[in-house]
TrEMBL record:
Keyword Transcription regulation attributed: yes
InterPro entries the UniProt entry points to: GAF-like_dom_sf (IPR029016), HTH_MetabolicPath_Reg (IPR050707), Tscrpt_reg_IclR_C (IPR014757), Tscrpt_reg_IclR_N (IPR005471), WH-like_DNA-bd_sf (IPR036388), WH_DNA-bd_sf (IPR036390)
This protein's name: IclR family transcriptional regulator
PANTHER family in the cross-refs: HELIX-TURN-HELIX TRANSCRIPTIONAL REGULATOR, ICLR FAMILY, HTH-TYPE TRANSCRIPTIONAL REGULATOR RV1719
Stored Gene3D superfamilies: 3.30.450.40, Winged helix-like DNA-binding domain superfamily/Winged helix DNA-binding domain (1.10.10.10)
Sequence ranges assigned to domain IclR-ED in this UniProt record: 75-257
Length: 265
């Protein structure tokens, strides 16, 4: 039952304006201020459309307009300045590497971070193939079902995982709580392999392979490639995992360098 509830497919009658507004809210929350032009470019819409969306977010306190005329996260969704700046820095550094990964493999690429017991997509680059996995930026899925989420969970301590999956934290959604023993066994395999696979567990018809990204001394993020399951073949796994490892290494290198500059060391 928990697996069925986790499946997340695009609604048949998706409301594009709602989707755009929600994506903007997430961008403001995790990346920081946006101008109208920035918002229009990211969504692929006209400036007038972006302005209307941002105005509605301001009206509902999801955004606020600063003296610089840019839009900032409003009181409903504001993160601490440190959390926002670090997430924004990670995304900025990772995006060129995600584009390169898409170029290498021809499949969509993503960057995820852990948010409690969920994995949040903070960056996404779509493949150019006609049949492809779409942009996942801003979406969240149960961490124990996603390839990237499993990599980050595997790096937590036993006590940290026990706290995340304690029965009392899952009141009201106990039927979605994973079998902790089975999860621990699965995470043992993930640690041994150094990568994780999610085949049809969060979205039917979608397979993802992930690799962890070290942020400081922890696996604080993950990079993944997502593809239609019909195109997933285990014969590709070595190439996919190798490309992911190179991408994770390059992101870690650039992030370490940026943090050293930020700290003045």
């Amino acid at each position: 039952m928990a697996q069925d509830r986790a499946l997340k497919n695009r609604p048949q009658y998706a409301l594009t304006s709602v989707d755009h507004a929600l994506r903007l809210a997430v961008m403001l929350q995790v990346e920081g201020p946006l101008s109208v032009s920035d918002a229009a470019e990211r969504l692929g819409v006209a400036r007038s459309t972006a302005h209307r969306l941002l105005t509605m977010l301001v009206y509902r306190d999801f955004a606020r307009q600063g003296d610089d005329r840019r839009y900032h996260a409003g009181p409903v969704i504001s993160l601490t300045a440190d959390a926002q700046s670090r997430t924004a820095l990670l995304r900025t550094i990772a995006m060129p590497h995600l584009h390169a990964l898409v170029g290498r493999l021809g499949e969509s690429a993503n960057l995820l971070v852990l948010a409690g017991d969920y994995a949040r997509f903070i960056g996404s680059v779509e493949s150019t193939q006609a049949l492809r996995v779409g942009n996942r930026e801003g979406m969240v899925f149960p961490a124990h079902l996603t390839s990237g989420g499993k990599l980050m969970l595997a790096d937590l301590t036993v006590d940290e995982r026990a706290e995340l999956y304690a029965v009392e934290r899952w009141r009201g959604r106990s039927d979605e709580r994973p079998d902790v023993g089975a999860l621990e066994r699965e995470l043992d395999v993930v640690r041994e392999r150094g990568f994780a696979i999610n085949k049809d567990r969060t979205e039917s018809g979608v397979t993802a392979v992930g690799r962890g990204v070290r942020v400081g001394d922890r696996v604080g993020a993950a990079v993944t490639v997502s593809m239609p399951t019909v195109r997933f073949d285990e014969s590709r796994l070595v190439d996919v995992v190798t490309a992911l490892a190179l991408t994770a290494r390059d992101i870690e290198h650039d992030l370490h360098a940026a943090l050293r500059v930020e700290l003045g060391v």
